[in-house]
């Protein structure tokens, strides 16, 4: 059975009635996207989502993304806000959008939010993960990682991550945008950072997780690149703390890690929206009791 039709499920808002905005939580495979923001001639998350919204509502506004991701970076939960000219049931909106989205981008849940909601400017905490696979051969069935054959000093990773949390300037690990934003205050609140390692049949998997109130341009990949550079035995752990102290004045430590291993895991808003997960069928509502007397036969 197909999904309910647009006309049956999306009654037009009455004239003069405020139409709410919607918050979409997206999951995307970054391999096929040139980042999130709309570009003139490139395929991006924002442009593909906008095209799908336009299929449902030609007057839909361009969606606003809660985080700007680089080319190749994936997301398990990337919020995007939009405004439509019709009133939608959140579940039906998610199902309808997914019919128009490609197989590397999907809506997993929807929330109705206030008219002036702008997910780019709402206070939030962002959680990222980065996967490094240490093994002899390339992991062809798992491209969402940074493949390294051997880390001679892998045991130092956990200790290096302990230097990251706190309110501090970690601009030594970020890249310049070469615009006015490079002059902004580089101090950010980094709430947690840690490495964990596990063994599988093919080798070792190293997971780096980090949470913060904001990040500089390519900063997480810069941090990972610097720590892996040390784990490869190409620098001393003291070089990492020296880079933290020096800020942008220091020569980059190692190379920026490739984007394939990075994933935005979730965005937590300080005031959580009323998320509704996408379901094929909503649970039936409880009908009121029938108070009519039984029919006499």
Describe the structure in your own words.
The chain has 6 helices and 11 strands. The chain has helices at residues 6-9, 45-56, 90-100, 157-161, 219-231, 237-246; strands at residues 21-28, 64-65, 74-83, 105-113, 124-134, 146-148, 166-169, 187-200, 203-212, 262-269, 276-277. Strand 8 and strand 9 form a beta hairpin.
Number of domains: 2
The parts where pLDDT drops under 50 for at least 5 residues are 1-15, 291-297
**Per CATH, which architecture of the largest domain?**
2-Layer Sandwich
If you average the pLDDT, what whole number results? 88
Q: What is the CATH topology classification name of the largest domain?
A: Alpha-Beta Plaits
Strand elements, count: 11
Tell me about the biggest sheet?
11 strands, mixed
Oligomer: single chain
CATH homologous superfamily heading of the largest domain: Pseudouridine synthase I, catalytic domain, C-terminal subdomain
What's the gyration radius in Å? 23 Å
Strand content: 25-35%
CATH C-level class of the largest domain is Alpha Beta
What percent of residues adopt helix (DSSP H or I)? 10-25%
- What shape does the CA trace take? globular
Euclidean distance between termini CA atoms: 38 Å
Secondary-structure-derived class: alpha+beta
- Give the helices and strands as they follow along the chain: HEHEEHEEEHEEEHHEE
* Total helical segments: 6
